[in-house]
Amino acid sequence: MGGKAGDRLLRVLVTGGAGFIGSHIVELLIESGHSPVVVDNLSSGRKENVPQGVRFYGVDLVDPSLAEVFARERPEVVIHQAAQVSVSRSVREPLHDAQVNVLGTLNLLEQCRAYGTRKVVFASTAAVYGDPVRLPVDEEHPIAPASPYGVAKRAVEEYLRIYRELYGLDYTALRYANVYGPRQDAHGEGGVVAIFTHRIVRGEPIELHGDGEQTRDLVHVRDVARANIQALDRGGGECINASRQSETSINELARFLGTLVGREVEVTRVAPRPGDIRRSVLSNEKALRLLGWRPEIGLAEGLAETVEYEIATATPA
Ligand code: NAD
């Protein structure tokens, strides 16, 4: 059966498993026959996102009681999604960002070391590259994060490299492009698809920063979840992009969503966001080569599903 490490079922601990991407990973782990457990402090995640029957620990990453979870569960693999996810909050509160994203992760890695976890699959980000100097951005592209969030994610990649060297803890860091799909929070800042869909479905205007010709590489959350499953036993010691390698402008996205919802989209033009990246597209050639992964969900299909989900879950005004 595909997705199992050497056809063995694995005990997998998913941090952030009550969140957007983490909950899709938990579902796919179950489908693939593995046994996930979840650690999540519910700061942005929701308990309802965790499938019935999955053991849930409402523990903070930075808390010493994380050791008790490891003592009980002894995970073979940790899929680490929990994070302070807001780039703008990291700019306002770099210390808090580092407390969760660096020190919280170190607390987790120390538990992995103490309890003999074999591998960590880490949710890294395209933000480690900063403003691209060439496109598509491959993994050899210069690293120049433009926010404390990106610096912290990069720091974790380096800690992972050194933990592998010093303590033999294997890892794969997946550098996600812009992930979208059902269950994404529309009130956060990163999820342009979630924010637009939420507003368009309710007939509210959307805010477009600058000329709207800035581009993003939009990858569906189930494709990203599948990359995590593929990395359970592949891609050791590597940082690998998880992207669709396809550029979509914000204007195109707004038009597309308007068509899917079946209404004229009202657009409010606002000033460009300082530091906003103009074009973003990540190569996914390394993921194909090392993980045997390529995205399978096209934008039309993925957006249609996201719109349907939003309509189904929208509370009538
Ligand atoms: P999310 O906010 O839905 O998920 C994060 C989860 O982590 C939440 O359930 C939250 O409650 C939990 N969490 C936060 N701080 C915690 C703590 N201190 N202890 C325990 N749990 C904690 O966000 P997401 O979009 O699903 O992001 C998942 C991961 O992917 C994050 O590491 C994020 O940085 C990374 N990422 C996301 C994107 C994207 O486009 N969504 C892009 C690049 C990288």
Helix content: 25-40%
Number of strands: 13
Distance between the termini: 46 Å
Distinct small molecules: nicotinamide-adenine-dinucleotide
Given the helix and strand composition, which structural class is it?
alpha/beta
Which descriptor suits the 3D outline? Answer: globular
* SS field, number of helical segments: 10
Strand order, biggest sheet? 3-2-1-4-5-6-11
Order of helices and strands: EHEEHEHHEHEEHEEEHEEHEHH
Tell me the fraction of residues in β-strands, as a range: 15-25%
Using only C-alpha atoms, the radius of gyration works out to 19 Å
Largest sheet: 7 strands, parallel
Average pLDDT confidence is: 95
The unreliable regions are 1-5
Layout of helices and strands:
Layout: E1 11-15, H1 20-31, E2 35-39, E3 56-57, H2 66-73, E4 77-80, H3 87-92, H4 94-114, E5 119-125, H5 148-167, E6 170-176, E7 178-180, H6 192-201, E8 206-209, E9 215-216, E10 218-220, H7 221-230, E11 238-242, E12 248-249, H8 250-261, E13 267-270, H9 285-291, H10 299-313
Parallel strand pairs: 1-2, 1-4, 2-3, 4-5, 5-6, 6-11, 7-10, 8-13
Antiparallel strand pairs: 9-12
Bound molecules: nicotinamide-adenine-dinucleotide (NAD).
